[in-house]
Amino acid sequence: MNQIMTLLNKELVESLKTFKLLAIIITFLIIGVLSPFIVLIMPDILESAVVDSGIEMVIPEPTADQSYMQFFSHINQLGFIVFLLLFGGILTNEISRRTLINLLTKGLKRHNVVLSKVLFILIIWTVIYFMSAMITYLYTVYFFDETVHHLPAALSTTWLYGIFLISLIFLFSAAFKNFIAVIFSIIGVVVVMMILTVFPSIEMFVPQHLLSLNMELIIGEKDLSDTLTPVAVTLSASILVFILSIFIFNKKTLV
Amino acid sequence: MLSESDWIIFLIPLILLQVILMITALVLIIRQTHFKYFNKIIWIVIVLLLNIIGPVLYFILERR
Amino acid sequence: MDILKIENLSKSFNDKNVIDNLSLIVRENEIYGFIGSNGSGKTTTMNMILGQLEPNGGDIYVCGEKVNFGNTETNKYIGYLPDVPEFYNYMTAPQYLRLCAKLTDLKKNERESRIDYLLSIVGLSGERSKIKAYSRGMKQRLGVAQALIHQPELLICDEPTSALDPKGRMELLKILKDITAETTVIFSTHVLTDVERISDYAGILYEGNIVKEIDLSKTDFGDKGIDLKLDSNEYKSLSERIELSHLQGDNYRAVDISLRDLYQLLYTLDIQPSQLELSKKSLEDIYLEVTR
């Protein structure tokens, strides 16, 4: 426990000194503000386009649903990528730069290295994700009167998907030695999951399904009970992957 | 339709956040003498042209 | 007590035996020099002692406890200085040592005094710059300090002087010599003068095994022969009686003959060498002999 707290503090200092924490916070703040903004300026943009072309058409009013839809797509397209770039190397950087050798050879437990990094990255992800979501939420309730369905559940599914991606960071960091291999392996897994979600029979058992489920919850097409299977699958998959990562890292040759 | 004050409550944070990230990266680039990848000029151009991703690339490649 | 005991250790990479049935004992408060050429398996052996590399066979005991690959309890007894120690560049030396201290069993109230003490013995007291700005020599000295933070029973140094200039090398050897009061030291090197300067024992690693162990407290490693300075006539008459090997100039070496017999012979032949010297074997001679 002592070792974990010490390393947790070290991770925090490191992410501050390397400006990774600043970069991830700013990125997620921007996503939070940008998402409702794009929805609100869309009619203006459409209108100017329509006026220029001279075509008569009715421009639909923006809705609160769209605000969250924008939020989810920004997290998927920008948020996850920036997060993986900034924190995907949290373990491999230390392996390739051999900075762990000094610490491990004086009695630091290997599982404490992984646990402290897992804990740190989970805290960062949770804080920045819900901070970003909160900003989109505040703008959305200010500009739109209507409410959406199952908002906390919808937000949580994407958060859980993020945790699954984080577990993959650790699995591939323990298995391989460099950052590039980790990133490409994660991309590989995501591509495979996307292919699997095409088949309706197994869709429920693929974590990727959480990313389409969130919008269906917001617009009220799906109910909370529909989230049970994918949430249970993703959660248990993540925990298994975390445990597996620790086992692999414990027996890894680090020289 | 957004009013002018509505625009401001979006644009001020958006611009401010991007500027903070960009300025931080630029200050570090200007003070840095040896680069692992590229050189000073190329990094300045990358950070100025690529919003968010530019500074992020600089942080992960040069300041790890 | 045996601080380190290695029994029949073996390790192969891609079917090539790097370490082949190696056994070794290091006792308390010794300085043990581990001599071997590059690629002879010194680092491989050290990594197995540290539990960072899995042996193919054999056992290692540190302070009587068995080393297990991966998470080994024995590392709390060991301080390790890698050949190129890597630190967190954004920290200062005291910050780094504080991190190390917190990860070990060192008591909280002893931390700061231990850090101050170690910084002073490695000559880094008052050094305020970040590790990023350190020279190789400074990093090596900080490496010694971090390795000693938890008062280990055994300090293992991998080629500690190889990247240093002569001044840095002398400083580091002095530090290693000075700390034997509190710990046992094993260091690997391919520089024999380093071993001669500070070690009590030396083991020569060759083809995966310790081919020779040398007690350096005994300065006499045996005779090489008797060196004589002779003019051409003297050489001619003496070489008819015994075998002489030519060294350089007028210098010759008589081997396989005792000093007494040689004196007798010189007296008989009425030869007065302008110089006569008993040539002793150096560590280098032994090294070259056993690794031939």
Automatic annotation (TrEMBL), chain A:
Transmembrane segments: 21-42, 75-93, 114-139, 151-172, 179-202, 231-249
Keyword tags: Membrane, Transmembrane, Transmembrane helix
Domain of life: Bacteria
Coiled coil start-end: none
Electron transport keyword on record: no
Keyword Glycosyltransferase found: no
PANTHER family the record matches: ABC TRANSPORTER PERMEASE
Descriptive protein name: ABC-2 type transport system permease protein
TrEMBL record, chain B:
TM helices/strands, residue ranges: 7-29, 41-61
Main location, first listed in the record: membrane
Example of a GO cellular component annotation carried by this entry: plasma membrane
Cardiolipin synthase N-terminal domain location: 20-61
Bilayer topology term: Multi-pass membrane protein
Protein name: Phospholipase_D-nuclease N-terminal
Coiled-coil intervals, chain numbering: none
Top-rank taxon: Bacteria
Species: Lacicoccus qingdaonensis
Pfam families: PLDc_N
Keywords: Cell membrane, Membrane, Transmembrane, Transmembrane helix
Cell compartment(s), UniProt: Cell membrane
TrEMBL record, chain C:
Assigned protein family: Belongs to the ABC transporter superfamily.
Gene3D superfamilies referenced in this protein's UniProt entry, alphabetically: P-loop containing nucleotide triphosphate hydrolases
Protein species of origin: Lacicoccus qingdaonensis
Xref: InterPro entries: AAA+_ATPase, ABC_transporter-like_ATP-bd, P-loop_NTPase
Keywords for the protein's UniProt record, in alphabetical order: ATP-binding, Nucleotide-binding, Transport
UniProt name for this protein: ABC-2 type transport system ATP-binding protein
Pfam families linked to this entry: ABC_tran
Origin: domain of life: Bacteria
